[in-house]
């Protein structure tokens, strides 16, 4: 394949690269006053990149025709779905940020530029079909994320979050690199196709250790137990728009990358990694649920909720089938909408002095003082708990159905039983907002962009979202088929 064809396949990445560099120069010469304009232009660039991946998803492109740069990247329907979801989440995070950053006098153009480069890294991650491009995309995303976590220079919590994320992220990168080196040493290649072919006769002990270390490094990126320890602290300390970004777009990219590594590179030996994924799934569900019960800070609680939901997503991956991959992507799309809406609702809680509120004490009786936010949060929390007829219920139904069809009935039973634990802390939101005595602390209104994002997210996961679920299911089926085309 010639370079012209390869460049055509990675056109979304080229758009983001050009946009990031141009906006960086624009920010350098324009100064802080260009912050809002740079955010708008960044959202336009992300929207343009998203429009470019839609034909790939609709046409179900896969296999050799999707390969770019001699098999380094795959612009198939699977990566197209993950990119589209990532770009939309990033646009949502750009929309909600100006109100928060301007209130803190921190509305700088660097925020949007960093977010574009982080999204570029995620775009490379989901297309990677080689360990080298995998690591390049992962580190491009991570380096931007470390800076975003500590974006509020005068906030000690933000600085602490950035430092913790950097130190633990560097540790995870080292673990991942060690696993990649073992995998290369025992298979003789860094290509996913070559790794899969080398293991068709069986998995050697050395390659098994490589697989374990690779999955351990990726588990950190998706906040799966036992590599979840950074999540509550970073989510609490980082600026809320950044926390929203961490909980949505990078989560999509990391989970999509994990699925490609497991089902593509190690797809010929599913029994070798399935038990690892099952343990991480069940441990994440239980630890996420139990860890959230005692939390009073809303962002820390939503961090544990994120860990809990990763467990359900990994249940779909454990099936190691096209149906399981489709269910995983279906759940992932709904999870992004629920998380985005939940964090936006928290972002809209401000008192009369403009200070942001983050605890349960601050939302007591919210239904009588801010009924719009309270009712949106009620729908979002019930959906996260998996209560029908909200879309969160159908997402859980899809992943459990996939593992039952794969013959993993005990996993489905344990997962369903463990999901009951999480309902407690989601219902706590409702109890505090609707039944506790009102404190009337959240008095300031959210911006129009924040209301737009919250309203759209609430409608999408409400029973009205069911009318769109068939289209989403068709897209996830097409994406999963693209991933299994070369397996």
TrEMBL record:
<feature type="transmembrane region" description="Helical">
    <location>
        <begin position="328"/>
        <end position="349"/>
    </location>
</feature>
<feature type="transmembrane region" description="Helical">
    <location>
        <begin position="448"/>
        <end position="468"/>
    </location>
</feature>
<comment type="subunit">
    <text>NDH-1 is composed of 14 different subunits. Subunits NuoA, H, J, K, L, M, N constitute the membrane sector of the complex.</text>
</comment>
<feature type="transmembrane region" description="Helical">
    <location>
        <begin position="6"/>
        <end position="30"/>
    </location>
</feature>
<feature type="transmembrane region" description="Helical">
    <location>
        <begin position="373"/>
        <end position="395"/>
    </location>
</feature>
<feature type="transmembrane region" description="Helical">
    <location>
        <begin position="111"/>
        <end position="128"/>
    </location>
</feature>
<dbReference type="GO" id="GO:0005886">
    <property type="term" value="C:plasma membrane"/>
</dbReference>
<dbReference type="GO" id="GO:0008137">
    <property type="term" value="F:NADH dehydrogenase (ubiquinone) activity"/>
</dbReference>
<comment type="similarity">
    <text>Belongs to the complex I subunit 2 family.</text>
</comment>
<feature type="transmembrane region" description="Helical">
    <location>
        <begin position="37"/>
        <end position="58"/>
    </location>
</feature>
<feature type="domain" description="NADH:quinone oxidoreductase/Mrp antiporter transmembrane">
    <location>
        <begin position="128"/>
        <end position="422"/>
    </location>
</feature>
<keyword id="KW-1278">Translocase</keyword>
<comment type="function">
    <text>NDH-1 shuttles electrons from NADH, via FMN and iron-sulfur (Fe-S) centers, to quinones in the respiratory chain. The immediate electron acceptor for the enzyme in this species is believed to be ubiquinone. Couples the redox reaction to proton translocation (for every two electrons transferred, four hydrogen ions are translocated across the cytoplasmic membrane), and thus conserves the redox energy in a proton gradient.</text>
</comment>
<keyword id="KW-1003">Cell membrane</keyword>
<keyword id="KW-0472">Membrane</keyword>
<feature type="transmembrane region" description="Helical">
    <location>
        <begin position="78"/>
        <end position="99"/>
    </location>
</feature>
<dbReference type="Pfam" id="PF00361">
    <property type="entry name" value="Proton_antipo_M"/>
</dbReference>
<feature type="transmembrane region" description="Helical">
    <location>
        <begin position="301"/>
        <end position="322"/>
    </location>
</feature>
<dbReference type="InterPro" id="IPR010096">
    <property type="entry name" value="NADH-Q_OxRdtase_suN/2"/>
</dbReference>
<protein>
    <recommendedName>
        <fullName>NADH-quinone oxidoreductase subunit N</fullName>
        <ecNumber>7.1.1.-</ecNumber>
    </recommendedName>
</protein>
<dbReference type="GO" id="GO:0042773">
    <property type="term" value="P:ATP synthesis coupled electron transport"/>
</dbReference>
<keyword id="KW-0560">Oxidoreductase</keyword>
<feature type="transmembrane region" description="Helical">
    <location>
        <begin position="275"/>
        <end position="294"/>
    </location>
</feature>
<keyword id="KW-0813">Transport</keyword>
<feature type="transmembrane region" description="Helical">
    <location>
        <begin position="207"/>
        <end position="230"/>
    </location>
</feature>
<keyword id="KW-1133">Transmembrane helix</keyword>
<dbReference type="GO" id="GO:0050136">
    <property type="term" value="F:NADH dehydrogenase (quinone) (non-electrogenic) activity"/>
</dbReference>
<keyword id="KW-0874">Quinone</keyword>
<feature type="transmembrane region" description="Helical">
    <location>
        <begin position="165"/>
        <end position="187"/>
    </location>
</feature>
<dbReference type="GO" id="GO:0048038">
    <property type="term" value="F:quinone binding"/>
</dbReference>
<dbReference type="InterPro" id="IPR001750">
    <property type="entry name" value="ND/Mrp_TM"/>
</dbReference>
<dbReference type="GO" id="GO:0012505">
    <property type="term" value="C:endomembrane system"/>
</dbReference>
<feature type="transmembrane region" description="Helical">
    <location>
        <begin position="407"/>
        <end position="427"/>
    </location>
</feature>
<keyword id="KW-0812">Transmembrane</keyword>
<keyword id="KW-0520">NAD</keyword>
<keyword id="KW-0830">Ubiquinone</keyword>
């Amino acid at each position: 394949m010639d370079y012209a064809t390869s460049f055509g396949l990675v056109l979304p990445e080229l758009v983001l690269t050009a946009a990031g560099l141009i906006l960086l120069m624009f920010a350098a010469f324009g100064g802080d006053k260009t912050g809002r304009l740079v955010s708008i232009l960044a959202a336009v660039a992300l929207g343009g990149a998203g429009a470019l991946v839609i034909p790939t998803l609709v046409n179900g492109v896969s296999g050799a025709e999707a390969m770019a740069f001699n098999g380094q990247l795959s612009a198939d329907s699977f990566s197209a779905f993950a990119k589209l979801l990532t770009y939309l989440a990033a646009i949502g995070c750009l929309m909600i940020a100006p109100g928060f950053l301007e209130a803190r006098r921190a509305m700088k153009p660097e925020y949007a530029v960093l977010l574009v480069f982080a999204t570029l890294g995620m775009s490379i991650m989901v297309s990677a079909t080689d360990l080298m491009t995998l690591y390049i995309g992962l580190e491009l995303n991570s380096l931007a994320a470390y800076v975003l976590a500590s974006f509020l220079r005068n906030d000690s919590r933000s600085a602490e979050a950035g430092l913790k994320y950097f130190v633990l992220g560097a540790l995870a990168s080292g673990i991942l690199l060690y696993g990649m080196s073992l995998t290369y040493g025992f298979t003789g290649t860094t290509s996913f196709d070559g790794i899969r072919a080398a293991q068709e006769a069986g998995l050697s002990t050395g390659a098994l250790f490589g697989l374990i270390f690779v999955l351990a490094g990726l588990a950190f990126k998706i906040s799966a137990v036992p590599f979840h320890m950074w999540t509550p602290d970073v989510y609490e300390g980082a600026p809320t728009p950044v926390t929203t970004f961490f909980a949505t777009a990078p989560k999509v990219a990391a989970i999509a990358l994990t699925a490609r590594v497991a089902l593509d590179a190690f797809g010929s030996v599913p029994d070798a990694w399935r038990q690892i994924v099952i343990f991480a799934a069940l441990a994440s569900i239980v630890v996420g649920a139990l860890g959230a019960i005692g939390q009073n800070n809303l962002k820390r609680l939503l961090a544990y909720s994120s860990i809990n939901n990763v467990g359900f997503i990994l249940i779909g991956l454990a099936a190691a089938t096209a149906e399981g991959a489709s269910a995983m992507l279906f759940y992932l799309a709904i999870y992004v909408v629920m998380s985005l809406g939940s964090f936006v609702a928290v972002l809209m809680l401000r008192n009369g002095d403009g200070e942001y509120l983050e605890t349960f004490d601050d939302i007591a009786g919210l239904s009588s003082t801010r009924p719009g936010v309270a009712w949106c949060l009620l729908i979002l929390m019930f959906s996260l708990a998996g209560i029908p007829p909200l879309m969160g219920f159908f997402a859980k139904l899809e992943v459990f159905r996939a593992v039952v069809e794969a013959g993993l009935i005990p996993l489905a039973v344990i997962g369903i039983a463990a999901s009951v634990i999480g309902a407690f802390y989601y219902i706590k939101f409702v109890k505090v907002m609707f039944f506790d005595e009102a404190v009337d602390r959240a008095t300031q209104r959210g911006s129009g962009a924040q209301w737009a994002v919250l309203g759209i997210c609430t409608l999408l996961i409400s029973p009205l979202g069911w009318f769109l679920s068939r289209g989403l299911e068709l897209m996830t089926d097409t994406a999963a088929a693209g991933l299994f085309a070369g397996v």
